[in-house]
Amino acid sequence: MSGSILIARPATGTSANAAPTAAQRLLRQGIVARLRGLRAGAIRLRDHQGEELLGDPDAPLGTIALEVHDPAFWSAVVWSGDVGAGEAYVAGQWSCSDLVKLLQLFVRDRAVLLDVDQSMWSLPRRLLLRVGQWLRRNHKRGSERNIADHYDLGDELFEHFLDPSMTYSSAWFEHEGQSLADAQQHKLQQLCRLVELQPTDHLLEIGTGWGSMALCAAGKFGAKVTTTTISRNQYGRAQQRIAAAGLQDRVELLLRDYRDLDGSYDKLVSCEMIEAVGAKFLPTYLRTCAQRLRPGGLFGLQAITIADQHYAEALRTVDYIKRHVFPGSFIPSVNAIVGAATEHTDLRVEKLEDFGHHYARTLQQWRQTVLAAPEPFLQRGGPALVRAWEYYFAYCEAGFRERHIGVCQLRFRRAGG
Fold first, then answer.
1. Catalytic residue among 216, 289, 396, 408
2. Is residue 218 part of a domain?
3. Known catalytic residue at 396
4. What is the pTM of this model?
5. Rounded to 5 degrees, what angle do the CA atoms 6, 208, 252 make?
6. What would the pLDDT profile of 209-234 be if each residue is shown by its tens digit?
């Protein structure tokens, strides 16, 4: 099963003028019956059969208008659930008045979402998706492929919505009105302070990105940095940025899987890379981090996390993000991370701070930037590519706003020292 939908591809046409088939009318009837159970808000549905209100319009999320342009939408949702709904949005089969709020509604009313998403009709596609996810498991060759499928899509797309530092992770806003660029620098410095970074330290970073963390640690904190990535595209760009900053003598850049690292370091940081290792390899990743630290060394981890109550369910499910945005990925829970560290390493957690609401704000800014000036995306893939990135950002933003997922910085200390 192939990877990302966030790439240039021919736009899927809609059949806006097509009348629904008898089968589509029947499928619609089943979905509408389930949506009547919404309690956190309401959907004002408009399609070929007219207009109707589903759910509770007096609830906290109010009423969101949803218009179905193509009756194939009903088939997509029944056969493919959550994934099908996203694919139908990208194809232009439906639109709504507030995409983030609609997705929040389905996070908050999880019982209704699961009732639609996990029907018997979607079982074949769900099984295929799970097979596809298994084929995307993160052994060394699989990890390289998974990373390339997202991070090597083209720097011109990422440059368009990221801040100038090219930091592709949650910002940390100090105050209302702070720019995204300043909030990203604050986040990077928070990670450096989390591990008490000093000019005498040799820092290992797992997951270079485009080099913003390494540049901050070496340029602002004066540390010696070794940083590694498996994205050939990011490796080349980070090399250029390190050279432009004149920090070649303080930053060593590696094109190497984390499992192939050696040596001993005073401090270690990893910013939103843990999600790419896969649940099966979580113990391996944490053992590697512990082994690379000297006794008493500090490990600063920034991780996207899922509520502990939903972790096991999420491992069994392939959602839109796993299918089309980050193939092979998973979102750990805090207990999964700390539990694996306790069982498989001598790392001890010392500090944890969640700042998920900052990620919602970060994603909102990225989404607004793409929608306000979509030209690079239109040139690469037309309106469907714009909708793909819009849906990706809105999907994640809704999860953070509802605290279904969060982002935190954790500090571990290796025993001894």
1. 396
2. yes
3. yes
4. 0.91
5. 150
6. 999 999 999 999 999 999 999 999 99
